[in-house]
Amino acid sequence: MPETSLIFPAREYQNRITRLQDRMATAGADALLLTTAADVFYVTGFLTRFWESPARPWFIVLPVSGDPVAVIPSIGAALMQRTWITQVRTWDAPDPADDGLSLLVDTLASLVPEQGKIAAPMGFETHLRMPLADYHALCAQLAPRQVMDGTDIVQRVREIKSEAEIAKIRTTCAIAGRAFDRVSEIAGVDRPLDQVFRAFQALLLGEGADWVSYLAGGAGADGYGDVISPATAQPLERGDILMLDTGAVREGYFCDFDRNYAIGPASDLAKRAHSALWSATETCLEALRPGMLARDVHQILRDALIAQGATPGAGRLGHGLGVTLTEWPSFTPKDTTPLRAGMVLTLEPGALVGPDRIMVHEENIVLRESGAELLSPRAPSDLPEIG
Amino acid sequence: MPETSLIFPAREYQNRITRLQDRMATAGADALLLTTAADVFYVTGFLTRFWESPARPWFIVLPVSGDPVAVIPSIGAALMQRTWITQVRTWDAPDPADDGLSLLVDTLASLVPEQGKIAAPMGFETHLRMPLADYHALCAQLAPRQVMDGTDIVQRVREIKSEAEIAKIRTTCAIAGRAFDRVSEIAGVDRPLDQVFRAFQALLLGEGADWVSYLAGGAGADGYGDVISPATAQPLERGDILMLDTGAVREGYFCDFDRNYAIGPASDLAKRAHSALWSATETCLEALRPGMLARDVHQILRDALIAQGATPGAGRLGHGLGVTLTEWPSFTPKDTTPLRAGMVLTLEPGALVGPDRIMVHEENIVLRESGAELLSPRAPSDLPEIG
To answer: What is the ipTM of this complex?
Structure first.
């Protein structure tokens, strides 16, 4: 049994806490309530796949000064006590009569004055991972304390990655890069797509992924119809474009990028589309600077695709990345989030190649003061042919 | 591109809808709002790993009569249109100004009279997967319509599995059973535990899992300290007990069971503990009947462990299983959920084998009118020795 389970040294977490508490003080929040796997992992280093079970809620309460308090099911006590967290309060969950609610109310009541405020993420791209009825009971029992939106507190801190975090994401990207380099071992003419998906996940594990939280993709003549469907047993055919898009995880940090492969010789149509996507990404890599807004990145990618003669696809053209597969901001026409140095981002241009047929391309980067630095090994400029 | 993506024939979903609507009518709900991957999959067959991205909310609105309406991000339209669902309304997500809220409000307003009620799961073992601020706005905009707790409506329907669902879970259990039979290929003295975890996930994929949503376990002399921690690089040693516990997925249906292995010859202590766990499970398999309460199963397992000379571990001793890794009910002293034929359940006794050291054992069953029927291949009564 290891003595500690830290992922990072304690000072990494203490620095995160300080940054959160600075924003809490500015926003007038006396405590921050966190409930999701990502937010709990971010402040504690508590990493487990047990979140897959929807049975139990888990809570972290961060006061505006002082250390965080974990209010968690007793089954998690041993692991939480091996993190840097020293204040761990537990109950025997699942408990249909009181699933941690009274313990959470006690904890918040002891840390927040009656005229005080409790922040919880409740905005864009968030959800509250606890029963809604318990949340309503909590608000009633803690009154006159108020609950306020803590989305901005969490997102403005989490979106700036430390060098230690950037190193983790680079490691995960390298794992996926090595697996992508081996796709010719597992894909080719007549190979059913669902078998390719299974074998690619095994490649990722073999290259060092702890687990594979996301794998999507598609295959079809000169492109694919959508990029979120599970694979069917349809065999690959000569002339298909195979795309694999993975969110593998190592030590809690994700990559999220894709690669395209032509099964047999690629058509000119597919080659041109791949080249347009690759060049648009190149243009964006060169142009990106802190101070731009998220919507500017959308515009850069869109303009670059059009300049290459391609028809931009719908939807966002990239997003944040870190302790979840996707994070804010989103590269859409409407997202005005300012880009800052330290953000880890995906560039994900898509192009229409025919009716209901698209190709997509994705890289992962960290934004530096001087511009974009690649974290994923850059895709080849020419569409690779296999099988 | 396949024309349909159904998992089951449409009548399977229509039967689920009828059962939900019967309970909605009894409860006085005019519509049911569903937001989680499991609930959406349950009524539509919409299966994607894209839920891993927290960016976008997804909604299903089921009126008390008539077909369900999907209110979803446009990126999901192609896949949803290949299910049996015919009413699909989309918006371009993520949209920071209006992330589906107005479309959802319109949909609910058109289906629910002003004096009507909208049910949403908000109780034990649930959460609402949408931004809390949007939920509050929804309640305000739909007033005087009321939102009521729909937990019981969903749980009483989902907990009874059809024969088609039982067959899916049996298939997933068989995949995991074949992988467990091959553990000697990947585990042994000096093999680091994290490499065993990676290799076991690859075995599951090789045996037919679509993906591996959960793998936990532990290893240590005569037992392990906790069962939710990720693996470390600690090498296995002679005398260790290795436990692997997996929630593999095939076509959206989970298994959830574990197996123990002695690395080298097992000690008498470990053999006795394994035998007690196996025998307690056997006793429970023989005793289980519809009409018992969930807490009765806890008592049966606990009594059987004590009769075998073992010390029962803390926590729940099993739970429901299906389209998520764990479902209600929980085999705890407090859960009074009645057991009914058609429930798929795990029996998961645990025993203390020393200070901070436990062993656990788990099987998956379906409860029939006549008693328990195994879905997982039964563990060997004697602790297997490998490596």
So the answer is: 0.97
- Alpha carbon distance, N-terminus to C-terminus of chain B: 46
Domain segments of chain B: what residues? 10-158, 163-386
CA neighbours closer than 13 Å in the CB half-sphere of residue A328: 24
Nearest neighbour of B205 by CB, restricted to A124, A198, A228 = A198
Question: What would be the CATH architecture of the domain defined by A163-386?
Answer: Alpha-Beta Complex (3.90)
Q: Is A12 on the interface with B (CB under 8 A)?
A: no
B360 close to B313: Cβ distance less than 8 angstroms: yes
Q: What are phi and psi of A123, to 5 degrees?
A: -105, -160
| B128 neighbourhood in chain A, CB within 8 Å | 127-128, 132
Range 282-311 of A in CB contact (< 8 A) with B: none
CA angle (A212, B127, A113) in 5-degree steps: 115
Classified as helix, coil or strand, B85 is: coil
Note down pLDDT in tens along chain A; length 387 residues: 445 667 999 999 999 999 999 999 999 999 999 999 999 999 999 999 999 999 999 999 999 999 999 999 999 999 999 999 999 999 999 999 999 999 999 999 999 999 999 999 999 999 999 999 999 999 999 999 999 999 999 999 999 999 999 999 999 999 999 999 999 999 999 999 999 999 999 999 999 999 999 999 999 999 998 889 889 999 999 999 999 999 999 999 999 999 999 999 999 999 999 999 999 999 999 999 999 999 999 999 999 999 999 999 888 999 999 999 999 999 999 999 999 999 999 999 999 999 889 999 999 999 999 999 999 999 999 999 998
d(CA B151, CA B138): 19
B95, B127, B199 member nearest A131 (Cβ): B127
Class of domain A10-158 (CATH, top level): alpha beta
